[in-house]
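Narrative progress, year one. The postdoctoral researcher (J.K.) led the effort to move from monomer predictions toward full complexes, under supervision of the PI. The following entry was the first complex the group processed end to end, covering 291 residues in total.
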Amino acid sequence: MPPSPALLRERVCTWFADAARDLPWRAPDRTPWGVLVSEVMLQQTPVVRVEPVWREWMDRWPRPADLAAAATADVLRAWGRLGYPRRALRLQDCARAITDLHDGEVPQGFDELLALPGVGAYTAGAVTAFAFGRRAVVLDTNVRRVLARALDGDALPHPHQTVGEVRRAEAVVPGDDAEAAGWAAASMELGALVCTARSPRCGECPVADLCVWRLAGFPADEHAARRRTQAWAGTDRQCRGRVMAALRAADGPVPREAIGWPDAAQLDRALAALVEDHLAEQTAEGYVLPR
DNA sequence: CAAGCGTGGCA
DNA sequence: TTGCCAAGCTT
């Protein structure tokens, strides 16, 4: 029998009151824009790498209109090595949409948030809960894992999020706005700090005695064999990363030959794709970050 | 809708 | 060492 949602919530939220990390986008003086920036930066990127970049961004571009007016090359350089630099482009597009369509204020409606560039279901829910303190389903990789273990007895959630999973997660969210926002933050934090993917710290877990996965003796992941592994060495993705690093580091145009990638055809494909993605521009002297 | 998209740290 | 994983989104 899985634990009742009410008991699960109470335990996790009580634990969170004491265990919550002191992150800058949780500070009392945070803005909705700061929360949105943090959520985009945190997509597939660990907190420790995001924090210094977030601080620099918020000092430099404290409002959406500031980022909207920035040079894209500066934005991409400030993004640094967070990875997935197209997120930086979308964040600037997002700032421009907020400036042009919402009077420079982050919209509070879920559908309006969802319509912003780079904002999907998770991020729209996270901003709703964390920036505006309103009820939302916030189902990220941490919460998915917590629910899979505590309620379903599975080691890990399914490789792809299902409709049924969202419905189940929705059923666990309290009705009250403040309580729902608290549950979102607390359940994510539990997944990030205790109920981790690799080696969970069940000794520190507030719901260890209720967890179906633990009570079942930690059965292994059924989908382990089907999870695709990320190839890396020699991939287009690595090549793109190498190009972007070279463009960020350069003051002027970078000749194609100066990038230092062994496979010329692959380099050309990557360059063309980066230009197509508006992450680079070609000039007579070489490639540059977009203005 | 499955695939593509960066990067670095850790078990 | 190397595969796995990290607050996903877009097409």
